[in-house]
Inverse folding.
């Protein structure tokens, strides 16, 4: 798993319990997964299709630094599937894990569009 981005937990990211608000974290994950997909499919025209069960394992508090990791799982005709892990940068404690996030390449009419890539293409890009 490669960790692509880091976030500092600030007061505006907290919930009523003074821990990281899950919605903020999911927004960051969706954005990171979208960027990951754009780089792999070489297209900015991608949309979130599916996110599997989200496993909240621990939380983060103000001042913590978290990092978001993505790992390629599979590729379809129009899609790419990855998994995600978010952890505390300093303690390495897992905060959240998601087994499947699927993004689809789309055309100007928001219809699925084949990307023409193979597993080998994606693996070569990941080196």
């Amino acid at each position: 798993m490669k960790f692509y981005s880091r976030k500092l937990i600030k007061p505006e990211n907290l919930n009523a319990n003074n821990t990281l608000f899950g919605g903020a974290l999911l927004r960051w994950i969706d954005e990171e997964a979208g960027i990951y997909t754009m780089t792999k499919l070489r297209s900015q025209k991608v949309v979130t299709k599916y996110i599997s069960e989200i496993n909240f394992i621990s939380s983060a508090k103000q001042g913590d630094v978290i990092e978001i990791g993505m790992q390629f799982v599979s590729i379809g005709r129009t899609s790419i599937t990855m998994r995600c892990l978010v952890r505390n940068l300093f303690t390495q404690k897992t905060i959240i894990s998601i087994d499947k996030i699927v993004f689809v390449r789309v055309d100007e009419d928001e219809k699925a569009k084949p990307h023409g890539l193979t597993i080998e293409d994606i693996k070569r890009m990941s080196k």
Observations:
- The chain has one domain: 2-125.
- Residues 2-125 form a domain with the Thiol Ester Dehydrase; Chain A fold (CATH 3.10.129.10).
- The helical segments are 22-41, 119-125.
